[in-house]
Structure formats: structure tokens, C-alpha cells
Design brief:
15% strand, Rossmann fold, 8 helices, 251 residues, alpha/beta, seven-stranded parallel sheet, globular
Length: 251
Amino acid sequence: MEMFSLAGRRALVTGASSGIGKAMAGFLANAGAEVVLVARREAELAATASALPGEGAVHWEVADLLDLEGIADVADTVLSRVGDIHIVVNAAGVNLRQPVDEVTTATWQQTLDLNLAAPFFLARAFIAGMRRAGYGRVINIASLQSERAFPNGLPYGASKGGVAQLTRAMAETWSPDGICCNAIAPGFFPTELTAPVFSNPDTEQWAASGTAMGRNGEMADLEGPTLFFASEASRYVTGQVLYVDGGFTAR
């Protein structure tokens, strides 16, 4: 299991105060990584930090990644407090689920900025340290909507389709330096973003019945993919989008 150990690695996870980001931060910490949690909500970040498993140090930084101009300052603060980051997980995101006629220029820009622009600018801020370490991993969060279209999801689908291509472009740019860039595309998991699905038994069952396995995702289903992409196990894998969806996209 040494191949999956993250001892001696530092990982930064955005959207770490809840949902998939919080779960992935826990997986990385449990594998031995020193973890930096980034999100907007201070109380939730502090609670997540205090509950993380593992023996590595845990840090947290309050930041609004919609402020693209401020991302460089966030990165500088993290680097000065913690040192070089080896693993970046871009889990922060938004899905406003607006009917197409209600989409405004502001909500369109908000979705594209947080889901697509912030992952690029944040990852780029830590690439120099990955080069110095001779080790780097960027893990983006794609979506079923990177491939499939759903109602009331046009801006979100556009942003997540972009994440799939962003991941490939990151790989082409940074993999010559030993930095592997991949994405996990979750199916339906119970999070704040998917509350409209899981709050209704009919839509929850619809989502489960759309999979090949007949069930929706559980957070533990993301542990293996997270550790694979973060660790030495994925050293010859880059530019890939892994659908962790119970076979939803296979049907």
C-alpha cells in the first residue's frame, strides 16, 4: 500500500467545508497528507479541520474563489504558512439550476468563474512548487454534465464541459514536469449542491435507476479514485476524466 501513501505530501482542497471537498480532504489526511482546507465559511472550515482523521497537520484558509484577482494572494498566504503544495483538489463549485430564460450575465459569469476559471488560476499558483518537488497532482471535479445535458443546467453544463477540456489542457502543459492532471466526475452523491435531487424521493429514485448499479453514490465510493489520482499509483495517468457514477454514463 506504500504506492497510495501520501506521507510527506501537502494537499490543498477547495470547497472543503462540505460535501465532496470535505470528504476528499478526509481521504487525503487519512492517507498521511498535510492538508490545507479552503472555503468561504469559517465556522464550517474550523469544524472540518478539527474532525479530520490522520496524523498530518491540518490548516485552513478562508477565501472566496469568486474573487479571481485575490487567488494569487490566497496562494501566497498558503505558501508562506505551509510551504510548497504537491496536490491541488479543485472541489469548490456552484450549480444555480436556473431555467435558461432566467440566466443573467451575472449568474453565467459566477458559474464560469468558480467552476472553470478558479481551478486554473489556483492550480497555476502552485505549479512552481510542484516542479521543485518533482511531484505534482491536480485533481479537478468534473460532472455528469461534462458529458450529459440536464434541464436547468446550461451554464453549469458549459462550465463542467470546460473542466474536462481544462484538465486535458493542464495535462498537456504541465505533465512534462511530472505533474499529473486528472478529473473525477461524480454521479449523484448527497451534498448541498444535489439537495434538490435528494430532498425528493422521486428524483432520488430517478437518479438511482439511471445507474447500472441501481443506487446513488456514497462518499466512501470516492476514496479510491481520490487516492489513486493523488498518489504515486497514477504516475503514468494524466489528462483523464474518471466517471465515478455507478455506470450512469454507460447507459
